[in-house]
Each structure stands twice: as structure tokens, then as C-alpha cells.
Amino acid sequence: xxxxxxxxxxxxxxxxxxxxxxxxxxxxxxxxxxxxxxxxxxxxxxxxxxxxxxxxxxxxxxxxxxxxxxxxxxxxxxxxxxxxxxxxxxxxxxxxxxxxxxxxxxxxxxxxxxxxxxxxxxxxxxxxxxxxxxxxxxxxxxxxxxxxxxxxxxxxxxxxxxxxxxxxxxxxxxxxxxxxxxxxxxxxxxxxxxxxxxxxxxxxxxxxxxxxxxxxxxxxxxxxxxxxxxxxxxxxxxxxxxxxxxxxxxxxxxxxxxxxxxxxxxxxxxxxxxxxxxxxxxxxxxxxxxxxxxxxxxxxxxxxxxxxxxxxxxxxxxxxxxxxxxxxx
Length: 329
Known about the structure:
Strands 1, 2, 3, 4, 5, 6, 7, 8 and 9 form a 9-stranded mixed sheet that branches. With 329 residues, the protein is of the alpha/beta class. The protein has 2 domains: 8-220, Alpha-Beta Complex (Spore Coat Polysaccharide Biosynthesis Protein SpsA, Chain A), CATH 3.90.550.10; 234-326, no CATH class. The protein starts with 7 loop residues before the first strand and ends with a helix. It has helices spanning 18-29, 49-62, 78-88, 107-117, 142-145, 150-157, 161-167, 183-186, 195-206, 234-241, 245-265, 272-289, 295-308, 310-314, 318-326; strands spanning 8-14, 37-42, 66-71, 93-98, 102-103, 121-131, 137-141, 177-179, 208-220.
């Protein structure tokens, strides 16, 4: 065990990922600072993943790393599988891991140093190099594909991650690490949220969230991704505008209602200003969902939301405004 500062767990959830699994595992064992524990939960893979995991576990244990392997009796899905795996992790700092990525050699060391230096830091995430199924680098990084702006990064770096995350999620699970203490507030995980978004939001409510702009992993994009990332080019944005708008907004409303319910139940109580900000975002989404189907008839409500600043505080500014202006339904 590493005795300095804190123990470290890697939580890996697998599902039919044998083809890429060995490359990931090799990168975990090549870390400049080895993990104390690798906690794996398999979601009923039907390929060679499970026997391969048992083989790979021996190599990790030979390096002094504790390995726990668990397998679901029936398929539970990404969020439920991560939730179960997290409850088995014993480390003070927990790193999430995807079965098809490759970690850069200093990932654990780099993130470990941040947690050691900053006692209020609850959650840390980073950029990633996007690669294809053959390991060939694609034309952008993760942050570029997600179109993170300098303004968003500045908010995160200056202690205003809550404001940035209230607009949209910026943290991708495959790059994410957090203090185990966060699980007290985050579990159980609601199915309306993706696990990385939920963890990042709860961490931003309770403490500090930050990001590392340097790529720390190779994030593999392929047809089998359970959750991946795509660059949002102009054609994709136009296609999004053609989707049913109200159904999308009602989904966001459900998520905010779930978040509010959790925050109101937390002890010690959540900071009142942050609770009111979530309530204000919910009201913003409800006003947008109530806009009429008739495009010209929406203009007064859109203008009121624009003048009040709601599109910029609680959504992606001009993108959200244009979505309400041109979106269907």
C-alpha cells in the first residue's frame, strides 16, 4: 500500500470489452504511481472479458495491487453497474476507468499530487486524446470535441465550477477522480442522471471541482462505446434543432427536480445560494418548456429569457436561444 496522503482505487466497469481490455490493463500497471486497488465489476459480458479479467488480475496482484472482481447476475446498465462497483471501492481517492481506453503513464501521479496539495478538492477531471478503434489519434481532444470555452475553464479554475456545471456537464467519467467522502452525498445514484454528471454536480455543491487541461488518457471512440463523445459540427447542431424540443426540456426538468430533492435532503444542509440557483434553473427550464409550438409566438418569451440572462446562466447561451427559436415542438 502507498502510505503517503491517501490510498487510491481504480473502479473499472466492463461489458463485452475483451478486445481492448489488455491494453488498458497494461497502462494501469505502467503507472508511475501504482494504484492500491483495482475494483472491477462486469455487467454480464458474453465475450471473453470475464476469463481475461481473472488472468489480468493475477498480474496486478503480483505487483502488490489488491484486485476485487465481481460479476452481475443480470445486465444492470452503466449507471447501476458503476454504483455497485463504487460501493466496493475502499480507496480514499477513487478513479473511474473505461475498459477500452489507455491511461498515460503519469495520470495517477498527476492527479494524486493535486488531491494531496488541495484538501478541499473533491473532484478532478481532465482532457483526453481521442483515438479510433485502432489507436490512431483523431483530430481533436475531448475538451475540443465538447467545445469547452476559455470562459468555462476559467470558472472551473477559479472556484466557480458549480456555475459552469449548472449550465452543462463538463466532466467525462473516464478522466474523473474524486474523494471517497463524496459517496455519502452521491449514493444512491438516480437513473435520470449519468454517473459522471451526477458526481461532478454533487462535488461542486459541496466543495471544489477542478480540471487538468492536459490529456491524461487516450479516449477510444468506436462503434461499441456505451457512452462516447462526438464533435458537434454544424450539421449535427442543425439535426438537433429538428428534434422534439419539449420532450428534451421535460427530461432536463426531471433531472433538476431529482437534484433538488436530493439537495434538500442532504445533511449538513446545502449552501442556500446554491440551492436557490438550482431552483432558478428549474424555473428557467419550465418557462422554456411552456413556450408555444408556434415559432413566432415564442418570441416574447424568448426575449424575456434573454434579457433576464437565463440562457447564459443556466444553458449554453446563444445555442439554447437558437434551439428555442427554431426547435420543433
